[in-house]
Amino acid sequence: MTRLAQRFAAAGTPLVTSAGVVAQVWRGGSRAQVPVAFLLRCTKVVDLTYPVAKVLGLILSATKTKDPIDAHIVLLARERTWPVVTSDAEDLLRIDPTLTVQEI
């Protein structure tokens, strides 16, 4: 993960994530935080607002899934037509099977 973070940073790859993902990583302790903290310096972190939460609820209902953070990542990827780099590809693809996902 650290090497991947360094490659993204060196290439100037635009990155975006959900503030919810930051919370999920931070609960994992310092080992998980190091590469993410490095990436966050060049990543736009999008807050989960009230209007977005309502949209995510609709997505979850339509896809019969439960994780609002996964739904937020799918929404962010859809809005930008970007691929997703994740260790959670299966859950994201349940929400949107057409999503381009690179699993790490």
Shape: globular
The main pleated sheet reads as:
2 strands, parallel
Question: With helices defined by DSSP (H or I, 4 residues minimum), what is the helix count?
Answer: 6
Total number of beta strands: 4
**SSE topology string:** HEHHEHHEHE
Span between N and C termini?
Answer: 8 Å
Task: Catalogue the unreliable spans.
Answer: none
Mean pLDDT across residues: 90
The secondary structure category is: alpha/beta
Strand order of the largest sheet: 1-2
Question: What proportion strand?
Answer: 5-15%
Radius of gyration over C-alpha positions, nearest whole angstrom: 14 Å
Give the secondary structure arrangement, pairings included.
Layout: H1 2-11, E1 15-18, H2 19-26, H3 30-40, E2 43-46, H4 50-63, H5 68-80, E3 84-86, H6 89-95, E4 101-103
Parallel strand pairs: 1-2, 3-4
Describe the structure.
Helix 1 runs parallel beside helix 3 (30-40) and helix 4 packs across helix 5 (68-80). The protein has helices at residues 2-11, 19-26, 30-40, 50-63, 68-80, 89-95; strands spanning 15-18, 43-46, 84-86, 101-103. It has 6 helices and 4 strands, in the order αβααβααβαβ. The protein is globular, with a radius of gyration of 14 Å. The protein starts with a helix and ends with a strand. The strands form 2 sheets. A two-stranded parallel sheet has the order 1-2. The protein has a two-stranded parallel ribbon with strand order 3-4. It is an alpha/beta fold.
